[in-house]
Design goal:
It catalyses: 6-carboxy-5,6,7,8-tetrahydropterin + H(+) = 7-carboxy-7-carbaguanine + NH4(+). This protein is α/β, with parallel strands linked by helices and about 230 residues long. It has a single domain (about 10-220), classed as TIM Barrel (Alpha-Beta Barrel), CATH 3.20.20. The chain has helices spanning about 65-75, 90-100, 135-140, 150-160, 185-200, 210-215, and strands at about 10-20, 30-35, 60-65, 80, 105-110, 120-125, 140-145, 175-180, 205. A 9-stranded mixed beta sheet has the order 3-1-2-4-5-6-7-8-9. Helix 1 (about 65-75) runs parallel beside helix 2 (about 90-100). The two termini are about 30 Å apart. The relative contact order is 0.17. The structure holds the ligand Nc1nc2[nH]cc(C(=O)O)c2c(=O)[nH]1, iron/sulfur cluster (SF4) and magnesium ion (MG). The ligand Nc1nc2[nH]cc(C(=O)O)c2c(=O)[nH]1 binds near residues 18, 20, 46, 211 and 216.
Length: about 230
Amino acid sequence: MSQASSGTLPIYEAFYAFQGEGSHIGRAAFFIRTIGCPVRCSWCDSPGTWHKDHQPESIQRLTVDELVGRVQESGAPLAVITGGEPTIYDLAPLTQALQQAGIRTHLETCGAFDIRGSFDWITVSPKWNLPPLRQNIQKAHEIKIVVDGPTAIEDWWEQIGSHCTTNDFRMGAPDIWLQPEANQVGTAIHDAITNAVKSYPTRYRAGVQLHKIYSCDALDPNSMPVVG
Ligand SMILES: Nc1nc2[nH]cc(C(=O)O)c2c(=O)[nH]1
Ligand code: SF4
Ligand SMILES: [Mg+2]
């Protein structure tokens, strides 16, 4: 995997919006989306980040200082580092600089790589093409399962359930969000999620991609078009 060279990262987009998913849904957040993802999910909504080695003109490599400056200018209290798959890079210089500037650091990752950096919040969204490491499931503050078919919920529980020390949110278990895959939104997936939440009420939460309903990312001209 390639490394960030001397305090720079290849950035696909950096924009100000609100967190559209998970426990921080609706909170103002600055998004830093790195380029490069070896996972290649069929329904990826950021496939533009896949151009790991090919860098069209629109793709920028930014320094940590530039990135922190942009977050500060925006006024956002937190920065969501996402991708692509951001953990293919050493995120320690960026996260340290953000935290020193008083900005909280949140991570969106598939969990398949070592996490290098200091994060206030870790979201692991596991992907079958490259399943997560046990230690990352244990580090996660929340787990986001993209429900892309009728067996997705039980298949993922079989895969990661034993990695969780407890499955009861009252005992400090991470929230496990069930989020409908955008192209499959419809009654069957919604019903499957509703039934799972009712059957396992301490384990699951029903999720949504609120930013797609609002199209809020597009309000910032520095955001790239969302697919799906
Ligand atoms: N507004 C907004 N919220 C998000 N939460 C997770 C996102 C992601 O692409 O990782 C995302 C995103 O792309 N936009
Ligand atoms: S892990 Fe995320 S960025 Fe990578 S292909 Fe899958 S959905 Fe897209
Ligand atoms: Mg997205």
